[in-house]
Amino acid sequence: xxxxxxxxxxxxxxxxxxxxxxxxxxxxxxxxxxxxxxxxxxxxxxxxxxxxxxxxxxxxxxxxxxxxxxxxxxxxxxxxxxxxxxxxxxxxxxxxxxxxxxxxxxxxxxxxxxxxxxxxxxxxxxxxxxxxxxxxxxxxxxxxxxxxxxxxxxxxxxxxxxxxxxxxxxxxxxxxxxxxxxxxxxxxxxxxxxxxxxxxxxxxxxxxxxxxxxxxxxxxxxxxxxxxxxxxxxxxxxxxxxxxxxxxxxxxxxxxxxxxxxxxxxxxxxxxxxxxxxxxxxxxxxxxxxxxxxxxxxxxxxxxxxxxxxxxxxxxxxxxxxxxxxxxxxxxxxxxxxxxxxxxxxxxxxxxxxxxxxxxxxxxxxxxxxxxxxxxxxxxxxxxxxxxxxx
Length: 391
Ligand SMILES: NC(=O)c1ccc[n+]([C@@H]2O[C@H](COP(=O)([O-])OP(=O)(O)OC[C@H]3O[C@@H](n4cnc5c(N)ncnc54)[C@H](O)[C@@H]3O)[C@@H](O)[C@H]2O)c1
Known about the structure:
The chain is α/β, with parallel strands linked by helices and 391 residues long. Helix content is 29%, strand content 22%.
């Protein structure tokens, strides 16, 4: 799906990738295929991973500080473990570099606000991504809503069923104090989609969050209800316990746009006995090399999202969208030219060059994180959480 993108500027933006795991390895092909950007360096401290990074023919450093050796650097892509995002973002912004940081942008909303404040103080851009509202089908749904084709949107529902809990993980990825667990890690995508499509401020959050496997304790499933200040309501349902797959709802299309009927799915199930941290890390590093392919024959599906408006419903299909209304159905085919990461870079180029208003900026990421945090708080207290205006 990564297409050739024509550059409109003579000087490419120099970007360094920090952390060379699953997220970064998915992102690098988009950088290499985009003439607006030049990969300047990679920072990766793990000796087992550095040889893969070196194959890209750019300097590979062990420490973030070593990026100062580069003669010119416009910005960094932080694809490090979530607990490092806040301190590394602050350090990079203060060094004079723009920052693209992976989701969730931090471990909690307080850290996220510190990142936003630092970007403002340093007059640099902070962008959060990739997240699934960058995906072409979600962007197309948003445009359909904004053109008024569905009438007033009253409801958006998104469902995702995966094996997230049983995929190989570092310990902190399962701990919500460190931005881990499915509600922070995967809820970040769902809340991002719901806010993009409801197009208003979240007023209240009510949620239940589930931790059902004592052998692998984490927030592995949730049901979240959002009430928006324009009258819309939304739900995010996530079950990461390796039962039914969302692909049973998406005509067998996977998160990254592959046709995966049941016999082609690689599915992690509950292991007979716990793996050691070393085994988990090795399996994770192995999986990182192919977990998120750069190109795909169909549109990405983060589960299934359905928007309901006064004039009809819109849902994703393998190659686009389907609008169903009282007068029948319309199928819309969407271009496969730009992958989700190409679309992140398209927004990033405009943001860093100052040619368009950013959408997925620090405040956008902060609001997403704040809703995930509120969902966990609501589950803990059994109460609805009222979200104040951001400070
Ligand atoms: N947007 C997406 O679809 C998506 C997919 C996967 C992960 N993520 C996010 O990306 C982030 C990384 O997740 P991952 O699964 O790629 O993790 P990972 O463990 O596969 O990769 C992280 C890499 O960072 C390296 N690292 C550790 N400390 C470092 C430091 N101080 N400086 C530089 N590098 C360091 C590690 O050695 C590792 O190679 C998380 O925040 C996660 O939520 C996003």
